[in-house]
């Protein structure tokens, strides 16, 4: 439990009841989820696979991966978010196992257990992202895939993801992100290599505020996705 920011947990706990409200602060997550899902499925071939979603929140990604035929476990330390995820799973009939456990503890419990591990929009909310990356790598089987998504650290990302999204467009609650915790792709790539992961792909996620459309592309200046493979 040492790699936890209590303020971040409390922040998401206060918003837990809004996870499945597509017009709430979580609207951007609902909108980018199809992009994330297709990116993950393209490398992991989800059907029939055992998948772990680290920092699953209310289960948006976890449920969608289960709908693609994966056997999914979602973990989070925000208990209120997990309760929302469990209730939604019961209502939707999409089976997902949810556990309140730190990824470091689960890595000690189930090393090399999962075919794929996802950790999306979480690394920028923890004190020690390298510990998360290392644990994700430990949890996946040799040859398995690990996926991360986070925010780049540069003036453009600050302008769009913090000032624009939180203060101008009000897409996110003010204070959602701490710019100092954003990670450059080079930094995350180094963390992945240090954890025994081979980089497969990096794709940027961009948003057009005029059309309201999100898309994947080569522009990693703000949000980006990373696919890796465990090499040992």
UniProtKB/TrEMBL annotation:
<keyword id="KW-0808">Transferase</keyword>
<keyword id="KW-0831">Ubiquinone biosynthesis</keyword>
<feature type="binding site">
    <location>
        <position position="55"/>
    </location>
    <ligand>
        <name>S-adenosyl-L-methionine</name>
    </ligand>
</feature>
<dbReference type="GO" id="GO:0010420">
    <property type="term" value="F:polyprenyldihydroxybenzoate methyltransferase activity"/>
</dbReference>
<feature type="binding site">
    <location>
        <position position="36"/>
    </location>
    <ligand>
        <name>S-adenosyl-L-methionine</name>
    </ligand>
</feature>
<dbReference type="Pfam" id="PF13489">
    <property type="entry name" value="Methyltransf_23"/>
</dbReference>
<keyword id="KW-0949">S-adenosyl-L-methionine</keyword>
<dbReference type="InterPro" id="IPR010233">
    <property type="entry name" value="UbiG_MeTrfase"/>
</dbReference>
<dbReference type="GO" id="GO:0061542">
    <property type="term" value="F:3-demethylubiquinol 3-O-methyltransferase activity"/>
</dbReference>
<comment type="function">
    <text>O-methyltransferase that catalyzes the 2 O-methylation steps in the ubiquinone biosynthetic pathway.</text>
</comment>
<keyword id="KW-0489">Methyltransferase</keyword>
<comment type="pathway">
    <text>Cofactor biosynthesis; ubiquinone biosynthesis.</text>
</comment>
<dbReference type="GO" id="GO:0102208">
    <property type="term" value="F:2-polyprenyl-6-hydroxyphenol methylase activity"/>
</dbReference>
<comment type="similarity">
    <text>Belongs to the methyltransferase superfamily. UbiG/COQ3 family.</text>
</comment>
<protein>
    <recommendedName>
        <fullName>Ubiquinone biosynthesis O-methyltransferase</fullName>
        <ecNumber>2.1.1.222</ecNumber>
        <ecNumber>2.1.1.64</ecNumber>
    </recommendedName>
</protein>
<dbReference type="InterPro" id="IPR029063">
    <property type="entry name" value="SAM-dependent_MTases_sf"/>
</dbReference>
<feature type="binding site">
    <location>
        <position position="120"/>
    </location>
    <ligand>
        <name>S-adenosyl-L-methionine</name>
    </ligand>
</feature>
<dbReference type="GO" id="GO:0032259">
    <property type="term" value="P:methylation"/>
</dbReference>
<feature type="binding site">
    <location>
        <position position="76"/>
    </location>
    <ligand>
        <name>S-adenosyl-L-methionine</name>
    </ligand>
</feature>
């Amino acid at each position: 439990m040492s790699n936890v920011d209590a303020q971040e947990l409390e922040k998401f706990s206060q918003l837990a009841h809004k996870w499945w409200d597509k017009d709430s602060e979580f609207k951007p997550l609902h909108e980018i989820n199809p992009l994330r899902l297709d990116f993950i499925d393209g490398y992991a071939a989800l059907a029939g696979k055992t998948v772990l979603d680290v920092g699953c929140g209310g289960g948006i990604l976890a449920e969608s991966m289960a709908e693609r035929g994966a056997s999914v476990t979602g973990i989070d330390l925000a208990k209120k978010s997990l309760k929302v995820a469990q209730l939604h799973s019961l209502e939707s009939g999409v089976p997902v196992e949810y556990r309140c456990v730190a990824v470091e503890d689960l890595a000690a419990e189930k090393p090399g257990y999962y075919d794929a591990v996802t950790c999306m929009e979480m690394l920028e909310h923890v004190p020690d992202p390298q510990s998360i990356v290392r644990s994700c790598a430990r949890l996946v089987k040799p040859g398995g895939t690990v996926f991360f998504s986070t925010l780049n650290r540069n003036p453009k990302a600050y302008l769009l993801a913090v000032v624009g999204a939180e203060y101008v467009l009000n897409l996110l609650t003010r204070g959602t992100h701490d710019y100092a915790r954003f990670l450059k792709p080079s930094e995350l790539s180094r963390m992945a290599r240090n954890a025994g992961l081979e980089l497969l792909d990096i794709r940027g996620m961009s948003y057009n505020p005029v059309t309201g459309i999100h898309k994947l592309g080569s522009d990693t200046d703000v949000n980006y996705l990373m696919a890796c493979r465990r090499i040992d």
